[in-house]
Structure formats: structure tokens, C-alpha cells
Amino acid sequence: MAKKITVSELKCACLDPVWRARWLAGERPSTQPHIAQGGIKTNSVLFHKLAETFVGWLCNPSNAAESLESGEALWQALFDRFASEELTKLLRANQLEASHRFNLCLRALCNRLADLRAHAPGFKAWPDLYLGEEFDLKSVRIETGRGAVLINGRVDAVRTHPVHGVEVIDYKLSRGAQAKHDLVQLAIYARMLGIAKPGLRFHGVLEYYEPDLHELPVPAPQLDSLFEEMVTPVLAELAATRSDLVVPSEDPKRLGEPRGPPDDALAAAIRDCFAAFKLEVDVLGKIEAPQLVRYRVRPAAGVKVVSLANRAEDLQVRLALHQPPLIGPAQGYVHIDIPRPKPDTVRWSEVMSDPGYQRHPSPVALPIGIGVDGELVLADLADPNCCHALVAGSAGSGKSELLKSLVASLLHRNQPKALRLTIIDPKILTFGSLNGSPYLTGPVITDLDDAVVRLDEAVAEMGQRYRDLAHEGFEGFENLSQRLASGCRDMPFHVIVFDEFNTLITYLTTQSLFQC
Predict the structure, then answer these.
(1) Are both 193 and 298 inside the same structural domain?
(2) Is the C or the N end of the chain the one with fewer CB within 10 Å?
(3) Domain range spanning residue 54?
(4) Of 332, 222, 250, which is closest to residue 285 (Cα–Cα)?
(5) Cβ partners under 8 Å of residue 148, min gap 6
(6) For residue 432, is it within any domain?
(7) Distance in angstroms (rounded) separating the CA atoms of residues 188 and 194
(8) How, if at all, do strands 202-209 and 213-218 pair?
(9) pLDDT tens track for 328-376
(10) Does residue 76 share a domain with residue 197?
(11) Cα distance between residue 21 and residue 242, in whole Å
């Protein structure tokens, strides 16, 4: 039976592993974002209701609303017919600031409608512009490799566009740390509409009324990429049967320990496969790493390691693997590395409690992952051999999640006075929630021109640091830890994190071509 979920629930499941685990365990956690105490209420639900009602009224031919051209005329119609009573209720509830802000948001919506009308080629009536308000998307079925998921949702608006053809609109009354949530939600709606309306591709637009309108267009390729990277893997997990689910444990295993007893059936298959070629081995056991399972075998007297390695493809066939296992010598045994069909999850909390990480002296030591032997792999940004790192991988392989984990590790390990972060995030997906952090040198940079300026400034800063360290008798930037240990705190570590660095390379290459 297909699992059922709403768009709001799916968005939370994609962005919050703890929320997802609770949902999978049978709970129904809240999907409402937390509102800071003392903040002005945005009345988002009421805004959506009035926007739906008003645009529906405009599109009703019997109302002859095509005569409404200016933003002021549209606002007067909205106020007289629908908004006056609601604004009065807010005033009577002593929500003066909320009422004023809500008034401005509705006026901005009317100005937006007037602008759309003015730029719509051949405009005759509002139905020429709006294909429908608050589209109902009921039980849109998305197939995964582990089953199907039925998704329910309501799109704020679908409009015609002279360039993009059709665009899906999502209204928002606040942004802040929720920008990534908004983009994921828009990607889900675009995919659902593509399934419900075969043959159409949907350009996306986030319209933020804050209360002035700020528009964020999202091209169809970016929506597709975002869906495949962040939503598709979660849908596969949600579609799995309960016995397939992996729910976070309250008492995680220590890192570096074998993760279970040897699989007798697989061990027997390994022995039998080698025996068929007159190669006797004894399977000593296995260690489960996140990416693979390592079997340790001891060859009988006279059996060469190279003879075992030559049978890798035969083992692939016998064990029904997607690729041949890696076979090689180790101290006292031969290892057979079998890739896992689905990589295991390494939890950040486990890494933070690992004794090896806690004992590492560098304040900018980073956990990279778990090695084949189950031991934590660390890198040190204070080491000149590790001070620059490039994270590569295919779409959906977890590059951005790794970067977030690395940044979280740095914040966990340092105080703001000892660590400064510059975050460059052109796709506005990964680090929006960090804005306002005391660790940042400034707001998260999303514009590539601003990124180039900041990188130039970093080069100048690095040169000045080299000169200062040389003047003080330190031989290299890698000795900043030694300088800090001596009590000099005026030169904190400065780490620059760039998500989607390839976008900068493409941008600079394009700029160079235009200048030629």
C-alpha cells in the first residue's frame, strides 16, 4: 500500500532527519515553523485565503473585473469586498503592528497584480493570466524503487508567462531561515504539477511579501535538480516497508567497533566460490563500514593472494553484486570489500562524542567520515596539506550535507572570537539559516559578484597574516594554533566555505569569454 503524505510534511521530512524519524515511527509532528516570542504575527493563512478569494473573484467573468487596471483600484476592490472585515478584527484584537503589516502585504499583492496585467501580452481578462488559484493536487502518485508515495497539496497560484510558458507561484510572508524550506516546497509542487499535467514544464517563483514584494524566480532545471537531490532519496525511504526503515537509535553504537556478527550465508558463499577454483580460505569475520562490508579471510598454505584477487569477478557473479569486490592483502589476512547497496548513516552526534575527535588538539580539526576499518577519519585545516579542500561527488551524493556537518563541527569546537566564517552559497539552499550567527564575517553571500569581491579581500587578508606571522617569528600560517596557544587571540582562524564552487568557475569563464 502506498504511503500518504502532504507537501508540508514531505518538506519537513526532507529537511529535518529527526522530524522524518518521528513520522516514520508513526507520529504526526507539527509542520508549523517556530515563531520567536515577541515577533509580529504574519497572518500567512489569512493572506493565502484572501489572495485565493480575490483572484478567484477577478477571474469570474460575471464580475467584469478586467476594468481594474491600477494597483490602487485593485486594492480598493480587495478592501471593500474581502479585507476590510479581517483588518478590523485584527485591530479589535489589539494587533496594531500585525494589522498595519498585513495591510501593506495586501497592497503589495495588488500592485503585483497590476504589474502582471500591464506586462501580459494581449490581456483581455484575468483568466488569460491565471490558470487557476489554489490548485488542488490530490493523491499525486510518485513511484520510487521501494514503492509509491501519494502526495497531497494546494498550489498558491499557476500563471501564464510570456517567456517561461507556465509558472507555479508560492506566496510567503516571511523568509529568514526558511528560504531553503521554501525552495524545497516549490520543487515538490513543480514535480507534482508536471505529473498531474503531463507535457508541461513549470518555472517557479517565490513571492515574498515582507511586506514589500521580493521575487525569487527559480528555473525549471534548478527545481528538477533540487527535487532529485533532496526529495527523491527521502521519498524512497518513506515508501519503504516498516521493516526496511532505519530510525535513529537513542543509544548509538560507538564508532570504530565492528557492527555485527559475520553473515554465515555470505561467508559460506565466499568459501564455496573460492573452493570451486581449489582455493581454500577461512572467513575470520567482517567489519561493517558505512560504504562497504569488509570480510577478512585467511588463505590456506600455498594459496596466493593474487590468485584470490583474480577471482573477484567470479565472486561478483556468485554473490550477485553490482560490481566486483576489492580484494587485497592486509596484516595477517586478505580483505574482501563488498560495497553496500545503500550507504549507512553516520550521525553527527556520534562523531562529536568520539574520543579520538575530542582529544585532537587543533581547534579546526574536521571529521571527514568513517574509514573502512571503522575508525574516524580526521582532517586539520591548520595543517598546510589540508588547509584547502574540494568536495566532489555526483548529484544527491551528500556534498552539501557534508559541508553542513563540517561547519557544525567547527562551531561546536570554537567560540566566535577564535573562529570567523565566510559562507558563500549561490544556490541559496544550504546555509541560509546561519544568517545572523556571531561566527560570520557578514551575511551569507549568494551573489557571485559579491563572492569574487570577498575572495579578493581574503587574498589580501592572507598576505597580511603571513607578514604578521613572519614579524612575530612564526614560520607559517599552520602555526596559528601555536600562536593562539601562546595567548595571542587577535588573529582568529578564518574559514571560507563555498557551496557549489563550480558555479563560480563557470561564471568567471563566461565573463572571460565575453571580454575576449
Answers:
(1) no
(2) C
(3) 3-33+40-239
(4) 332
(5) 2, 3, 141, 142, 239
(6) yes
(7) 10
(8) antiparallel
(9) 998 889 999 988 877 777 888 888 888 888 888 788 888 988 887 778 8
(10) yes
(11) 12
**pLDDT tens digits along 296-327:** 999 999 999 999 999 999 999 888 888 899 99
Q: Are the CB atoms for 377 and 405 separated by under 8 Å?
A: no
Rounded to 10 deg, the angle between the 96-119 and 71-78 helix axes is 130
Instruction: Identify whether residues 127 and 15 lie together within a single domain.
Output: yes
SS3 state of residue 203: strand
The pLDDT assigned to 494 comes to 92
Same domain, 59 and 190: yes
Give this prediction's pTM: 0.49
Q: What is the CATH number of the domain that holds 93?
A: 3.90.320
8: exposed, middle or buried (Cβ count in 10 Å: 0-12, 13-18, 19+)? middle
Q: Clarify whether residues 156 and 269 are in a common domain.
A: no
Do the beta carbons of residue 288 and residue 258 sit within 8 Å? yes
Prior bond of 211 cis (ω within 30°): yes
Q: Is residue 369 a part of any domain in this protein?
A: no
- Domain count across the chain: 3
DSSP annotation string for 232-254:
HHHHHHHHS-GGG--PPPSSPPP
